[in-house]
Amino acid sequence: MKKLFLYILGFTASYTSLHAQETVYPAPAQKGLVFLKNATIHVGNGQVINNGTIGFNNGKITAIGADVAIPADDVKVFDVNGQHIYPGLIAPESNLGLTEVESVRATNDFSEVGEINPSVRSIVSYNTDSKIIATLRTNGILLAQVVPQGGLLSGSSSVVQLDAWNWEDAAYKTDNGIHFYMPRLMPRGNPFGAAAAGPGSDAIKAAMAEIASVKAFFQEAKAYALAQKHDAVNLKYEAVKGLFDRTQKLFIHCDLVKELVVATDIAKEFNFDVVIVGGTDAWLITDVLKQNNIPVILTQPHSLPVMQDDDVDQPYKTAAQLQKAGILFCISNEGFWQQRNLPFNAGTAGAYGLSKEEALSAITLNAAKILGIGEKTGSLEVGKDANIVVSTGDILDMKSSVITKAYIQGREVSLEDKHKQLYERYKYKYGLK
User: What is the DSSP letter of 71?
Assistant: First the structure.
């Protein structure tokens, strides 16, 4: 009987650990005034407030500073003495919630058949029940840009907050941009070492033909947008109307100098609000990008350089070079599960020329500005959403950063995730508790 009891107890503990995430619910709307005091507050715009206090109510920041008066009645006050407060981190360029297991096709819902699909909306495929989402919150990432992939014009992205029942609840800014994946303007050789299947110029010629087809689509869409009425509604042209009045951005995914020049030409030809995504060679043409006011989302800085004659640490240094040139940029880790390492990517940029506060801005305020949500979030300022993270140490340092509290629009969200559950499960299994 005793053995049976112990077996049931062990099974219950394992079952509870495995299924605990299903009983973690999205937090309800914030009600009542909350204050966090005695912390080092990193505003996100370069300013640091020592021994500061931040207050928020109904999802908005109401007070912040070193001398904030806290009312005596009807408030919640948390003393986070010795800890650090940051704006919620923002992960741009992600397929979070659009895929769960890369090798299982049924869990992948981020691309559509065909080359020109601007009417595809990533937001309606966003799965708020993804087990990956909680692992991002644990590292302080509270917002993400959900991006479609595949083809040339893959569709529209949206920004989501990472504590929601469904995609409607998650939507923070819908259809903020259209994504153009520019074909690589580089000759391609045979991967088996033999001669190329054809002259290198043929690959570039084919790529230029695809770029021309996208430009032709934009010309037709422009004519459609200018027309007073239409005999029939064209969903693809309707989807890009916002590009012409600049209520939407065109995110152009490209890396090489030639591709960046083409992206700049597209911005000038159509007067689009263009953002470069990737931007490996952006450091080589900072003057062109600055002149045309084109921001850059640097993707996966923990990588090798594209060109053999580049410095091996060039991807680490690019952020500092863009900062010095006065170009608006942010940092992304691409993918979905990889995004949990976003703060540490920014930390690497901080070790290669950026100050810590500049590195923080690269994953908070800069990202918010580029994604079109800078008026709502990205920094800790009165009137902005209370997207707040509390950490025991430097959030950019994986050794010292332990997130103790996180708030999305003033709602304290759960920091439970699958990683923690499995950690506890196997501690129990091997008698380490």
Answer: P
The pTM of the full predicted model, rounded to 2 decimals, is 0.90
Q: What whole-number distance in Å separates Cα of residue 157 and Cα of residue 132?
A: 19
CATH number at residue 361: 3.20.20.140
Q: Are residues 43 and 176 in the same domain?
A: no
Pairwise CA distance, residues 237 & 252, whole Å = 18
Question: Alpha-carbon distance 294 to 290, whole Å?
Answer: 6
Q: How far apart are CA 118 and CA 150, in angstroms?
A: 11
Model confidence over 264-303: pLDDT tens digits? 999 999 999 999 999 999 999 999 999 999 999 999 888 8
Residue 278: strand pairing partners: 254, 298
- Report if residue 424 sits inside a domain: no
Asked whether residue 143 carries a pLDDT value surpassing 80, the answer given is yes
98 contacts 108 by C-beta, under 8 angstroms: yes
Spatial distance between the Cα atoms of 346 and 398, rounded to a whole number of angstroms? 11
**330, 297 contact by CB (below 8 A):** yes
Point out which residues pair with 96 in neighbouring strands.
99
Between the CA of residue 372 and those of 90, 250, 362, 365, 402, what are the distances in Å? 12, 12, 15, 11, 29
Residue type, 409: Q
Q: Which of these, 239, 244, 352, lies nearest to 298 by C-alpha position? A: 352
**What domain range is 64 assigned to?**
25-88+379-415
Are residues 219 and 367 part of one domain?
yes
